[in-house]
């Protein structure tokens, strides 16, 4: 069975399009799909992190509106009114979470598509809606293809540019492990994953001996989701708490080829916002001489944001830090109803940023679907011109620099 965070069925003779998301708050204990019928459902699912991960958020938002339009739009309006309606619904969805650029990027591109469609005098509202739905559906397909290319590019780079990779290429007894944080796999994307996609590609090429998944407090995307994916796909994996990363790097220095992480927004200079804890891993990797790589599609590179200082970091509720939620363990085996357990002193102040920014100078390479970008010798920053050179004007449109409030 393939892990699928997003189940979408296009409209057909059997009925209108439908969308279901895997409720990731219930993973790994229960597999429950939740129907998303309109933008309010989509907004809530993203905000509550039932669906999460930069690419998945953008795709679910786009498909949410496709489903809503397919079931509620009666076509009575003009093409211009249909365009305005679509843009207004997209702008609403965009405010669900602020840090990942993919959502704002998708909203910008989809808005442009409907604006262009509506500008033709021969177009009616149905045609505008049709263009929108086709573009939203393409996102789902394109994301999987991009992730597979990221996986292949990253695996190749690791085999050619890391000590463990080069040794492994000539000596099958050499161990090669990768450390990662958060969840960047099938659950965070339309399928395959970004950083986890590179791990998958190394495993498929029989070059990976072990993946280390960091727990990723406070939301535990590592222990709940990445560990689940790795076990599901029979990839040898070890779960560590975030505080064990330094020790494992010190002990396994020669076997850990790289730390590979995903990204929510890569600024124009390469500074990268990703799950809280990523920055600490980059500092540790530099200290231990372990390569530190970011894996992300080009849609995550935000050339309108100059550096990490300009990235808005989402802050979430304190209870995510002071409480742990999960099903009770039944002594005879299995799991009972979910319960919440307090793990902190009552009344203590909490700071809960969902992401941090890793400066470009700590990053050795950014793995994209069109190749791995490295810094020019002596430079502290990245230059992404080469990976955007092949894009059509439409694809390469500059994204909005900020995604608005929560
Ligand atoms: C391919 S997912 C890339 C990032 O979105 C991922 O690393 C991450 O930080 C996800 O954070 P989350 O808060 O779970 O949405």
Can you walk through the features of this model?
The protein is α/β, with parallel strands linked by helices and 406 residues long. It has two domains: 6-141, Up-down Bundle (Four Helix Bundle (Hemerythrin (Met), subunit A)), CATH 1.20.120.420; 150-388, Translation initiation factor eif-2b, domain 2 (Rossmann fold, 3-Layer(aba) Sandwich). 39% of the residues lie in helices and 18% in strands. The protein contains twelve helices and 16 strands. The chain has helices spanning 39-47, 54-72, 79-94, 101-119, 125-161, 163-170, 195-204, 221-232, 245-252, 278-288, 319-322, 385-388, and strands spanning 6-9, 18-22, 33-35, 177-181, 210-214, 237-240, 256-261, 265-267, 272-275, 291-295, 301-302, 323-329, 335-342, 355-358, 365-368, 371-373. The strands form four sheets. The chain has a seven-stranded mixed beta sheet with strand order 6-5-4-7-10-15-16, with helices on both faces. Helix 8 (221-232) links the parallel strand 5 and strand 6 (237-240). The longest helix has 37 residues, at 125-161. The chain is globular, with a radius of gyration of 21 Å. Residues 398-406 have low confidence and may be disordered. 5-S-methyl-1-O-phosphono-5-thio-D-ribulose (MRU) binds next to helix 2 and strand 9.
């Amino acid at each position: 069975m393939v892990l699928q965070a997003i189940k979408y069925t296009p409209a057909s003779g059997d009925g209108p399009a439908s969308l279901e998301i895997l409720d990731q708050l219930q993973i790994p204990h229960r597999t429950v799909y939740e129907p998303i019928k309109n933008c309010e459902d989509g907004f809530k699912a993203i905000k509550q992190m039932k669906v999460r991960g930069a690419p998945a958020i953008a795709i679910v938002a786009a498909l949410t509106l496709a489903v809503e339009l397919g079931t509620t739009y009666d076509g009575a309006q003009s093409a211009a009114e249909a365009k305005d309606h679509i843009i207004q619904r997209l702008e609403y969805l965009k405010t669900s979470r602020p840090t990942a650029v993919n959502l704002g990027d998708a909203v910008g591109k989809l808005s442009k598509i409907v604006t262009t469609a509506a500008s033709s005098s021969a177009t009616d509202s149905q045609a505008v809606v049709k263009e929108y739905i086709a573009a939203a559906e393409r996102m789902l397909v394109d994301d999987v293809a991009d992730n597979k290319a990221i996986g292949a590019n990253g695996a190749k780079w690791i085999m050619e540019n890391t000590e463990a990779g080069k040794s492994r290429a000539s000596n099958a007894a050499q161990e090669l492990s990768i450390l990662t944080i958060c969840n960047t796999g099938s659950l965070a994307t339309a399928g395959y994953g970004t950083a986890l996609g590179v791990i998958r590609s190394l495993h498929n090429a029989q070059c990976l001996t072990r993946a280390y998944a960091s727990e990723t407090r406070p939301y535990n995307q590592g222990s709940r989701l990445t560990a689940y994916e790795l076990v599901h796909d029979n990839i040898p994996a070890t779960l560590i708490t975030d505080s064990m990363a330094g020790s494992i790097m010190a002990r396994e220095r020669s076997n850990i080829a790289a730390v590979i992480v995903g990204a929510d927004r890569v600024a124009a200079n390469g500074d990268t916002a990703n799950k809280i804890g990523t920055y600490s891993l980059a500092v540790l990797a530099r200290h231990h001489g372990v390569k530190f790589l970011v894996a992300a599609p080009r849609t995550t590179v935000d050339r309108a944001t100059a550096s990490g200082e300009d990235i808005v970091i989402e802050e979430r509720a304190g209870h995510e830090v002071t409480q742990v939620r999960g099903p009770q363990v039944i002594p005879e085996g299995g799991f009972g109803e979910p319960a919440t357990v307090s793990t902190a002193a009552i009344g203590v102040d909490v700071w809960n940023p969902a992401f941090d920014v890793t400066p470009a100078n700590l990053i050795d390479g950014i793995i994209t679907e069109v190749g791995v970008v490295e810094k020019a010798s002596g430079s502290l920053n990245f230059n992404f011109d080469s990976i955007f050179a092949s894009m059509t004007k439409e694809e390469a449109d500059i994204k909005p620099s900020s995604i608005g409030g929560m």
